[in-house]
């Protein structure tokens, strides 16, 4: 109780004291409040423009002189030998042929939409055209072009490419800025940044003073940030009539954007790709000596079967993969071979047919095919890392003298990034395992073969049940075509789709925009921090507005967790959460961890929740893997098990034995490394909020206390709670919204027969056939009572109502009443303190 008093005292007073000292939280939050203020910043991205010299005539002269210098530099580079070579390459790109048309259209219109095939030169050339024409018109020193990218890796790689095309170092006229990293100087006129960075700049500089051109790239992806940015920019355009907005898309559905911006003109860059031969699963199986044929027949059980696998006289030895596919198809016992039955084959589990097929095809290509890089699309970071582990033990694919096995995903370090674009040594085949990043935002030049798993990890959201899921789901036809197109850039290519043709035929034409399929909590917080009007009104002006129910759910959630007060205003906690670009629940854990000075394990928990599950469960060694996980568990918590596993890995790493440690314990070494770097990133973000000392390198002055961490986890994950009901032999679980729920089999709690706590808090529930909870931690009544919901004073009544609802639902009313009065007493005590 004493501890909890301290918690509340800390949270309420600490945060409000901080907010009093930081001007950014004054009433006009995030606006420029005092002279050359540098606003609370996680990365110095809110720097104010340099003060103008008082004498404008002198200033103009300086700028004019600088522009002339830039002009001379550009001329010199283009006349040099290397510069000429690069210019020739640039001129061969389809975008170059449209250069004049594009520049004229930009001059004549405030908004322009450009579409063109991936690789035609939109991202690298168009911003350069603008920069060069500004320099030619001797406005080079005043122009200020911002080009947004949906992902950090593309912002970084593209800026580097553009700088080298201009014969410069990064940070001269071309720079980049992504979260926690950047390279730009005073001379930078063209900045590539993530969409998130531009949104954060808008927080303090609503009119984007000094910016002359904004280029929003990859709008066809319809990411939530891009859709949000477009609403804000649409409002900004009338206020800044001289500001130019250019939208770039890889697909042809650009009319939607044109009509959104009042009929803005469209320019399409015609492209060229070589033909790509397509193989669906049927064809791949045929290659292996099997045939997947449609057939209509009533089987012994009276079921009509439409498809069967028949063995042809096998041309090759019956391979392990073919039998795996056969087994999987048989196991499905399907009536018809529809996308749904294919789905139920769970083909993308490691070691199941998906990975085996990939391994088979890769070794087939390496042994039999002509030279050329292979691009393998899998669902996400998770699959990349387990697939890489699997392939590395293959005699050919794991041999660095024959294969250069690379990965391409959002967490990639810059050094590894460069390798993707480099040509491999003679006789070595480059294989790149990638997420859908390489679909449109990154172009690898020498790709000839593409393997497409047909899925991408995307969030989906069921507003009715208020259940978010991050699951691999089928891509759209447009995405499949994009992936295929990657094979035909340099010469005719081959694309292997690892699913049957009928599944492809059932794909949706386009993917649903993210704003319609994700929970809107973070977005609502952002809208609030920009001090825009009511959330639902603002979102009603989006390109495609989300359902009202989804908006209401998000607002309700933010109120429950204490980020918004009853009248939908940001609370102090809410303002801090807007500074942490991550799910609010993770941000809450970090904030409380920082305040209670036990950040170290909390950083691990939060980083662990942000990467793939580091605990691997290979299908054939499921038991061994689950037992291995149990040794980290002593306290009915998957989250604490992860903390222990990470700490063990960290120790082992000191002796360079991290990999062995992971191997022995069924852990993913890549995930451990990702956790390690995310911890550093989160720590820097927290320093930016001012909650911890900016010089701190260690963050664990409070010694390890598992109960405290349990409470912090509960603080973050609430209202994701379920009650534990024991019967004679085991226990069952129930949530208020869904009734009975189950645990994922790899949860440490699933192995227990009793859980000596009445509640579990969970990170995620996923609807498959039943509802499954992933990653749970057991908590006591008192922890739930005192840490569930908001501890700061803003929303005590709302919280009590909510908690009361839970308690009454699960307990006898008398006990519930007693609990509520306890909590009230607690709050009063603190109020009176
Ligand atoms: O944006 P878009 O997909 O239209 O193409 P881009 O990213 O501007 O790339 C144009 C061309 O530049 C590509 O086809 C590649 O040949 C080349 N490029 C490269 O060699 N290395 C990079 N890091 C980026 C682009
Ligand atoms: Mg591009």
How would you characterize this protein structure?
With 833 residues, the protein is α/β, with parallel strands linked by helices. Helix content is 45%, strand content 16%. It has 33 helices and 23 strands. Strands 4-3-5-2-6-7-1-8 form an 8-stranded mixed beta sheet. Helix 12 runs antiparallel to helix 14 (353-368) and helix 20 (521-529) packs across helix 23. The two termini are 14 Å apart. Residues 1-6, 21-53, 294-308, 311-318, 331-337, 346-351 and 791-795 have low confidence and may be disordered. The structure holds cytidine-5'-diphosphate (CDP) and magnesium ion. Residues 93, 116, 118-125, 157, 161, 421, 443, 445 line the site of cytidine-5'-diphosphate.
CA gyration radius, whole angstroms: 28 Å
What form results from the Cα inertia axes?
globular
- What quaternary form is this? single chain
* Main β sheet profile: 8 strands, mixed
Helix and strand composition category: alpha/beta
Ligands and ions found: cytidine-5'-diphosphate, magnesium ion
Task: Throw out a few tags for this protein.
binds cytidine-5'-diphosphate; eight-stranded mixed beta sheet; globular; disordered N terminus; binds magnesium ion; alpha/beta; 833 residues
What would a concise description of this structure say?
This protein is of the alpha/beta class and about 850 residues long. Magnesium ion binds next to helix 6.
């Amino acid at each position: 109780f004493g501890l909890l008093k301290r918690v509340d005292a800390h949270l309420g007073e600490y945060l409000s004291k901080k907010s009093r000292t930081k001007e950014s939280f004054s009433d006009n939050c995030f606006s420029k409040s005092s002279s050359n203020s540098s606003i609370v910043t996680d990365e110095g991205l809110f720097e104010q423009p340099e003060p103008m010299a008082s004498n404008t005539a002198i200033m103009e002269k300086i700028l004019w002189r600088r522009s002339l210098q830039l002009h001379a530099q550009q001329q010199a580079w283009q006349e040099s030998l290397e510069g000429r070579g690069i210019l020739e390459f640039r001129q061969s790109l389809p975008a170059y042929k449209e250069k004049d048309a594009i520049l004229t259209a930009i001059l004549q219109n405030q908004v322009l939409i450009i579409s063109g095939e991936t690789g035609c030169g939109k991202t690298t050339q168009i911003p350069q055209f603008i920069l060069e024409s500004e320099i030619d018109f001797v406005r080079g020193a005043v122009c200020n072009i911002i080009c947004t990218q949906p992902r950090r890796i593309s912002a970084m790689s593209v800026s580097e490419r553009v700088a080298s095309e201009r014969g410069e170092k990064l940070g001269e006229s071309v720079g980049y800025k992504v979260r926690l990293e950047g390279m730009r100087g005073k001379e930078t006129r063209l900045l590539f940044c993530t969409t998130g960075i531009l949104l954060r700049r808008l927080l303090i500089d609503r009119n984007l003073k000094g910016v002359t051109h904004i280029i929003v790239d990859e709008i066809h992806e319809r990411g939530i940030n891009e859709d949000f940015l477009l609403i804000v920019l649409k409002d900004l355009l009338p206020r800044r009539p001289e500001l130019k907005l250019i939208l770039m898309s890889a697909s042809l559905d650009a009319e939607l954007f044109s009509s959104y911006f009042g009929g803005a003109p469209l320019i399409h860059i015609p492209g060229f790709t070589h033909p790509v031969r397509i193989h669906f699963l049927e064809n791949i199986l045929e290659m292996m000596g099997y045939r997947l044929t449609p057939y209509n027949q009533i089987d012994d059980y009276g079921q009509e079967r439409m498809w069967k696998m028949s063995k042809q006289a096998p041309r090759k030895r019956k391979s392990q993969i073919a039998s795996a596919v056969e087994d999987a198809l048989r196991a499905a016992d399907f009536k018809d071979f529809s996308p749904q039955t294919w789905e139920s084959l769970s083909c993308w589990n490691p070691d199941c047919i998906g990975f085996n097929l990939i391994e088979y095809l890769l070794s087939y290509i390496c042994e039999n095919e002509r030279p050329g890089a292979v691009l393998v699309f899998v669902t996400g970071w998770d699959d990349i890392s387990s697939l890489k582990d699997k392939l590395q033990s293959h005699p050919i694919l794991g041999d660095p003298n024959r294969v250069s096995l690379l990965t391409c995903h959002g967490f990639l370090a810059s050094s590894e990034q460069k390798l993707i674009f480099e040509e491999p040594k003679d006789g070595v085949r480059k294989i790149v395992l990638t997420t859908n990043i390489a679909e449109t935002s990154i172009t690898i030049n020498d790709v000839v073969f593409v393997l497409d798993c047909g899925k991408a990890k995307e969030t989906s959201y069921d507003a009715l049940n208020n259940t978010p899921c991050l699951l691999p789901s089928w891509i759209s036809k447009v995405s499949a075509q994009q992936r295929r197109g990657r094979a035909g850039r340099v010469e005719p290519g081959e694309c292997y789709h690892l699913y049957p043709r009928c599944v492809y035929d059932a794909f949706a034409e386009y993917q649903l925009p993210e704003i319609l399929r994700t929970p809107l909590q973070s977005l609502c917080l952002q809208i609030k921090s920009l001090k825009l009007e009511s959330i639902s009104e603002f979102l009603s002006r989006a390109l495609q507005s989300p359902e009202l129910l989804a908006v209401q759910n998000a607002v309700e959630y933010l109120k429950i967790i204490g980020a918004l007060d009853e009248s939908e205003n940001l609370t102090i906690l809410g303002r801090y959460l807007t500074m942490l670009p991550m799910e609010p629940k993770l941000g809450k854990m970090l904030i409380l961890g920082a305040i209670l000075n036990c950040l170290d394990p909390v950083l691990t928990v939060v980083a662990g929740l942000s990467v793939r599950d580091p605990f691997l469960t290979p299908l054939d060694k499921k038991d061994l893997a689950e037992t291995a996980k149990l040794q980290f568990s002593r306290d009915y918590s998957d989250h604490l098990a992860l903390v222990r596993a990470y700490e063990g890995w960290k120790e082992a790493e000191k002796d360079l034995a991290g990999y062995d440690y992971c191997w022995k314990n069924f852990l993913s070494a890549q995930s451990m490394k990702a956790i390690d770097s995310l911890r550093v990133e989160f720590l820097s973000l927290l320093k930016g909020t001012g909650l911890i000392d900016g010089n701190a390198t260690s963050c664990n002055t409070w010694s390890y206390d598992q109960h405290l961490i349990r409470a912090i986890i509960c603080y973050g994950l609430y209202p994701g709670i379920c009650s534990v009901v024991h019967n004679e032999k085991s226990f069952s679980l129930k949530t208020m919204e869904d009734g009975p729920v189950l645990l994922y089999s790899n949860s440490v709690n699933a192995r227990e027969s009793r859980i000596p706590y009445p509640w579990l808090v969970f990170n995620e529930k996923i609807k498959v056939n039943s509802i499954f909870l992933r990653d749970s931690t057991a908590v006591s009544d008192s922890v739930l009572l005192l840490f569930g919901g908001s501890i700061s004073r803003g929303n005590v009544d709302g919280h009590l109502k909510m908690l009361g609802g839970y308690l009454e639902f699960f307990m006898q009313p008398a006990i519930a009443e007693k609990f509520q009065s306890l909590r009230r007493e607690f709050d009063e005590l603190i109020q009176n303190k």
